[in-house]
Design goal:
about 600 residues, Elongation Factor Tu (Ef-tu), domain 3, Alpha-Beta Plaits, 5 domains, eight-stranded antiparallel beta sheet, six-stranded mixed beta sheet, 31 strands, about 25% helix
Length: about 600
Amino acid sequence: MKLNKLNKDNIRNFSIIAHIDHGKSTLSDRLIQLSGIIEDRDMKDQILDSMDIERERGITIKSQTVSLPYTAPDGTEYLLNLIDTPGHVDFSYEVSRALASCEGALILADASQGVEAQTLANLYLAMEHELEILPVINKIDLPSAEIDWVKDQIEEDLGLDSDLAMLVSAKVGTGVEEMFQAIVEGIPAPTVEDTGKFKALIFDSHYDAFRGTIVHFRIFEGSIKKGDRIQFMSNDAQYKVEEVGLFQIERKPQDQLMAGQVGYFIAGIKTISDVKIGDTVTMADKRCDEPLGGFREPTPVVFSSMYPVAADDYEELSEALEKLKLNDAALIYEKDASVALGFGYRCGFLGLLHLEVVQERLEREYNISLILTSPSVQYEITYTSGEVKIIDNPTEYPDPMEITKVREPFINASIIVPDKYMGNVMQVCHEFRGVSTNYQYLTSSRMEMKFTLPLAEVVYEFYDRLKSVTQGYGSFDYEIAGYQETDLVKLDFLINAERVDALSMLIHRDKAEAKARAACKKLREEIPRQQFKIPIQGAIGGKIISRETISAFRKDVTAKCYGGDISRKRKLLEKQKKGKKRMKMVGSVEIPQSAFLSVLKSD
């Protein structure tokens, strides 16, 4: 099939959106297999999830693109560009970027679980981009599948016509072939204005050690080929195109790409920071008048400092963050320094899963060992002078005497659960300082519960707790709701009477004592014993609220005394005591990496 000879009416750009675990990646696998762009012997599960961490956790983190050729029964050749999207709430910015490049979306519902919170959230995202939406019911081969029940939910919760719903089983392949024709008929071809200028949107990019930056883009006007001189509209940087092509698992170079197509270009871009996700690309000589409506800027909500374990790795960490930023538009960072840990970076993330993923990618892909400080959110502090400041770092927290009030960010959470778990969910939300604002029945047995919760509480282990009390049936989605006043304290940890700033955290006063006790216990288990006693203390200002002690190693100095006068033994013990006292004054306590991590994790 000669892809360059395609008419724009034969192109379809679509994405698959769904809640976590509703089968997006499996459905993508089947579509790829049936399109024949990959040999059966090379086929493997989750083929678009190329990162090890995605395959291990069974989640999609990066949105991937693949171009699927399809020949209709009447012989017409089509090119279907599938943009796979993540389902986890932390990666909803990835979804919004992918949707801006599409004309339509398949919304997937699990035949046994039905419509869940992320399904709804992603539907609203697709509606914002004015996409054509086709409902799909997946996993119809399961013994627990309830197709009529899910069809009712598609009508009631999503407001879509359930008669149009395609019934498929991505795992065994039932109904997947018919989807190609349904996509061609149900999703419109790209609309293209012929202004004689070139305009394209960057929706992703990644770094290749041999070719530099590889930019993923969708063309809205004009065409692009090797040798063209392109320009980025946000910073006016110009480059000469070396290669253009399509993604068909591997990169397939083409002579040219035209309006409506999704593909990549390579232009020897060495300055990584020139490429911005959501930027508009145009030609230096056929410059378009104004940029495309950009994506929403992702707003980080969780902050943590990263320090290399070996101080010499600081330069490598800087380079690694710059390359990772190319592939992860939501990561923000700035330089930071700590007395205990040296130089590092203060980073902003979209949630705790995002933080874990970034940490693991830095350790695996760039071989850097990291120490992370306790994650925190942004607090708004009003000083007695009337000045208002936003801080996210415990080290910047001022003296309580200078503060009039502190406000913390709250979220509006939407939790969809079977009604039998209502009591459990209420209990967990109240434990995390949540307030119930509303609840309603979606069907006779499923309900949507709405809460206002402090973001700082959700950041830790709220999601895990919710999953366990609802036996995995609870689904959770949230949006930031603004700031409310709170009673905040700074919790410090002293090890051998020295304050360790990397362990400090900002926490609500009611929770400080329990957190301090739990953290001191963990530190006692993680810090190795020394020749002298090590006190570990949790403190708010000058008040100690918890303490654990690591007992010293003690050599048996009286072993060589057989019987004889007791004063001989006492003399030896006193001598040992003096030595230990002197050692305590000069000895320093090495805190292992695992101790920092243990404080962050709950039981």
